Amino acid sequence: MPRGGRWSSSHRGSSPPCRAGRARPSSTRRRGPSRSISGFIAYALCAADEALRDANWLPSENEKKERTGVSIGGGIGSISDILDASQLIAENRLRRLSPFFIPKILINMASGHVSMKYGFQGPNHAAVTACATGAHSIGDATRMIQFGDADVMVAGGTESSIDALSIAGFSRLRALSTKYNSLPQASSRPFDCGRDGFVIGEGCGVMVLEALDHAMERGAKIYAEVRGYGMSGDAHHITQPQNDGRGAILAMERALEQSGLQADQIDYLNAHATSTPLGDAVEATAIKSVFGHHATSGGLALSSTKGAIGHLLGAAGSVEAIFTVLAIHHGVAPPTLNLEQPDLLFEGAFMP
């Protein structure tokens, strides 16, 4: 959790954020179009490049490019560019405003730049659904393949939101951790009794999805298979979940139904658990409701990787999907960092 960058210790009232290493893909070093690339777009370009190379999918034939799409969304976009631009307007320095200001802040430009770099002409999609963005991007991409719109989709979420304004906004929501400012590494502690808020992180997670027969035909390296995808809205409050976890329950039940699997066939669950007092408790209640005896008997491994990387907002769902895929691939579940005293909702064998 490095100090510095767009955050300093003068931004009191919240723990230092978790920031990814500086991202600057080679394509952004040129003059011209490079000026239209902001941080969240650069993260997407870097992550997409890594994913495509790992998947060995860099087609040169037009037919393959036309059957390859991109579904990369974001939660906030480039809030730092918005802040800088508003400062120029306030100082009556309109001529200093970049003509690329609008393209730099549009969420869909992450998908747009990836498609332009590789010439992908399939579906181009950008979900903007706050913390669910990364998961929605992957689920939507899966359905596009199932519907026949594409053979391959580059999917994920990206975020570059560590900025004084976003930190101030989340602080005013009282969503950020403040109890552990003297020990920032301990601030993000999902499911722990001492949790008091989340830590902002940033970065990007991208995976390459493709039709199973297409992957097998070309001898692709297959990590996992998407079996089900569930969505819901709890229709309750703009930031606060229902105490009974009904929204989360519906999403999990719908994913299970689509997958054709039973609850007791699930071995590992990567929780959203952001380290907020109410959010983690509601999620634990929802998990216990859906998985019942399977969870309470210790059959379900459960963890939140936000203890290690913080809350990546729009990128959270896709980064955590990658953690989950790798857990399946290697047969090792990641731990929940800073979990010292589990919430009292957990008991017996039902422990993160």
From TrEMBL:
* GO BP terms, alphabetized: fatty acid biosynthetic process
Q: Does the keyword Transferase apply?
A: yes
EC numbers listed for it are: 2.3.1.41
* Class of the enzyme per the UniProt entry, highest EC level: transferase
Family assignment from sequence similarity: Belongs to the thiolase-like superfamily. Beta-ketoacyl-ACP synthases family.
* NCBIfam families listed in its UniProt record: PRK07314.1 (NF005589)
The name this protein goes by in its record: beta-ketoacyl-[acyl-carrier-protein] synthase I
